[in-house]
Amino acid sequence: MTALATGHVGLNVSDLDRSVGFYREVLGFEVKASGDGYAFLGDEERLVLTLWEQSDGAFSTATPGLHHLSFEVDSLEDVTAAEARVRAAGAVLHHDGIVAHSEGASSGGIFFEDPDGIRLEIFTGAGVVAAAPSGDAPTCGFF
């Protein structure tokens, strides 16, 4: 079998227009295609997210399924810029800003929620000098 890579992630949302606006504003995605009840979002090179208006209510952390969706950026400056966009969008931001992935790690980022409560992470692999809110446990597992 050949190596597998994530193609795109599909998310159910409760309000397509609101979610498209959020993912465009906060993550900088462009609409690559859309129709009645769906939108395909990505960057210049690839499709990243498909949004489907097929849900009522908010994301449940109490049932099996997606824990969180993570996006890697090149630098701490990119994480800092993303944090500003998350705050400007009024999104729920966990840990009050940039944190390390675990105590002593130089990787880390921000942990926040989209308008439906879907948990998201934007991180960089190095350059983070911040405390880890969960000690040696992975920060991304406990928000």
TrEMBL record:
The lineage of its organism: Bacteria, Bacillati, Actinomycetota, Thermoleophilia, Solirubrobacterales. Signal peptide: none annotated. GO terms for molecular function: lactoylglutathione lyase activity; metal ion binding. It comes from Solirubrobacter ginsenosidimutans. This is VOC family protein. Keywords: Metal-binding. InterPro entries: Fosfomycin_Res_Enzymes, Glyas_Bleomycin-R_OHBP_Dase, Glyas_Fos-R_dOase_dom, Glyoxalase_1_CS, VOC_core. Residues 5-125 form the VOC domain.
